[in-house]
Amino acid sequence: MTPDRYSNFATLSRDQRAGLDFAVRVRRGSSGIAVLAPHGGRIEPGTSEIARALAGGDHTLYEFAGLKPAGNFALHLRSERFDEPRALEVIAGSRFLIVVHGCTGTEEILQVGGSFPFKQELIQTLTGFDWAVEKHPRFRGHHPNNLCNRLGPGRGLQLEVSAALRRRLTRDGTSAAPGTDRSGSLADLAAAVNGCLGRAPRANPWCRLPALCIHEGHQEHEGNGPGKFL
Question: Which of 63, 99, 102, 106 has the fewest CB atoms below 10 angstroms from its CB?
Fold first, then answer.
């Protein structure tokens, strides 16, 4: 793995220019769930689009997006060291986190990590799609400082999406190609993840989410509709 150029956001922001080299985007939701793409834009291409689909109009969305014409990996901060202030603010105001990362790979693979207690149920659901899903020993997301664990045990899910799968998800759009039975579109992934969250036992504190009902991949919410980027 290529080492990061910067150890924290303070050192990064001294060299890189907000609005030119990178952008921080936050859209507020009402569910208590936050979806984060800490390596969005051109850093790990496709992760912003996947995070937006997962967030929909109900969950808070955070993106740290690379904007440079080239050399965007210079903006990469490891998840354990990621400390951009607005990300920390989003995390502090959330009850559950979904963090989307990109990894290398020519095969279409989604690797599920984090401390979400119903990972196996999610994996079983995703296994029905026509790309691979697994728990990878390298991308487990178990470090206590990992973004997906910042709220404590049981309150975070990490999704590592291979380069090949990111290309497919962002290329295929929201439905299977006409005349095919392909499953596993970006909309399918979002419905599966949100459906699994909705079926988790209500005894979990992060499940007691006001103004949100998620069931069998369908979302209904009260309030003023989708938020705006801030």
Answer: 106
Q: What is the pLDDT of residues 138-169, one digit of tens each?
A: 656 667 889 999 999 889 999 999 999 999 99
Which CATH number goes with the domain that contains 104? 3.40.630.100
Phi, psi of 125 (to 5 degrees): -65, -45
The whole-model pTM stands at 0.83
Give the chain's residues under pLDDT 70: 1, 135-142, 172-182, 200-230
Q: Which uninterrupted H or E stretch holds 172?
A: helix 163-172
- Cα dihedral value 145, 146, 150, 151, nearest 10: -130
Q: Is residue 230 part of a domain?
A: no
Q: Judging by DSSP bridges, how do beta strands 156-162 and 109-113 pair with one another? A: antiparallel
| Tokens, residue 1 | 């793995």
Backbone angles phi, psi at 113, to 5 degrees: -140, -165
